[in-house]
Amino acid sequence: MGSRTEQSTRVRPTGQRMPSSSRRTPARRTSRAARYLPILVLVAGYLVVHLLWPIPVWVAGLYLVASIVCFAVYAADKSAATKGRWRVSEKTLLLLGVVGGWPGAIVAQQTLRHKTQKASFRSAFWATVFLNLLAFAVFATPVFDLLAEWTQRTLSL
């Protein structure tokens, strides 16, 4: 082995990856269980809202089907990425998440290790999760009726 200065100035050839032992690890790591916390929050929120204001069962079915479809699309995109084929656009992945497939997207991201590194995609993804949960809260609770009533009163003035 060379001196410390020789080791620190060593350059890897273009196109070669660093050995896994020398790769940097992110300073902030999230536990595996915490990555699934938003799904638990959705299920708990759904149950609480359903107890207070009954929700049709098709809503849960919509989340389940959208999640399965979203997982399958993430898996197809991961396969395309590893084989150098045409990829699924990020807009499509985000659209699937916002319509209720985001729980499946979270499972796919964690089990397939796909779409977890690009910060701009992660930010957009969590924004779609927030939008979906906001829409769920508005439409599944009396908030929508209150907004509709307020709008009707305001416009009839």
From TrEMBL:
Task: Say which domain of life the source belongs to.
Answer: Bacteria
Classification via InterPro entries: DUF1294
Q: Region Disordered: which residues?
A: 1-29
Pfam families per the UniProt record, alphabetical: DUF1294 (PF06961)
| Keyword hit for Transmembrane helix | yes
Q: Which ranges are annotated Polar residues under compositional bias? A: 1-11
Q: Which UniProt keywords apply?
A: Membrane, Transmembrane, Transmembrane helix
Write out the transmembrane intervals: 33-52, 58-76, 92-112, 124-148
Write the protein's name: DUF1294 domain-containing protein
